[in-house]
Design brief:
It contains nine helices and no strands. The protein has about 200 residues and is an all-alpha fold. Helix 1 (about 10-35) packs across helix 6 and helix 4 (about 60-80) packs parallel to helix 7.
């Protein structure tokens, strides 16, 4: 039976969250250039005019979505890196946290680690800035472990090792997406065998 009860009007922050949620799959699946503000507005159940009330441009919306997913990833990894246990145990927990993010936030991971980064110069610059900021935060979290291994965190050697681990985990995640029958634990074991070996060999005996 139809009613004439008025629909609940969403408050500004709630509508903004709806827009961010609608924008994530659009940017992650289609890429920055092909993303459509019209599709995002329709998915959020608003007009383009309402969308522009919250975000002045596609670029502004992209930056907000990118930042939101970066914070979620850092939260996943930070909790693991701050956990108790040996360095090896923390690194295993961190590898697992990264792959859990891939599993639980596939669109967020796809946005942060796209096969093809944005071509638009401004969007590409912001994407690179987010990646650089993530690397900076993770390097800070890894600093104590690096020093125990005799590495100065800001040294070329340490930065290269961090980059190898980051890119190795990204490659493992891409492989895992193509082999979804493999368990996360098995991928973590493989990542530890490949990536911990180099860093673990630096640990004091």
């Amino acid at each position: 039976m139809a009613t004439n009860a008025p629909r609940t009007r969403l408050k500004g922050p709630q509508r903004r969250e709806l827009l961010l949620a609608a924008a994530l799959p659009e940017f992650a699946k289609r890429g920055y250039e092909a993303a459509s503000l019209g599709r995002i507005a329709r998915a959020a159940g608003v007009t383009r005019t309402v969308l522009y009330d919250h975000f002045a441009s596609k670029h502004a919306l992209f930056v907000d979505v990118l930042g939101s997913e970066q914070r979620a990833l850092i939260e996943h990894l930070g909790a693991a890196l701050r956990s108790e246990g040996t360095t090896e145990e923390r690194w295993r927990a961190t590898f697992d946290a990264y792959l859990r993010f891939v599993q639980e936030h596939p669109l967020g991971w796809q946005l942060l680690f796209p096969s093809h980064p944005p071509v638009d110069p401004q969007a590409q610059s912001d994407w690179r800035a987010v990646r650089a900021d993530s690397n900076r935060v993770l390097a800070q979290l890894l600093a104590a472990d690096a020093r125990r291994a005799g590495l100065e965190p800001e040294s070329v050697r340490a930065r290269a090792l961090f980059a190898i681990h980051r890119d190795g985990l990204t490659a493992a995640a891409r492989w895992w997406q193509e082999h979804p029958h493999v368990s996360r634990e098995e991928v973590v074991d493989a990542a530890m065998a490949a990536l911990w070996t180099g860093f673990g060999g630096l640990q004091p005996s």
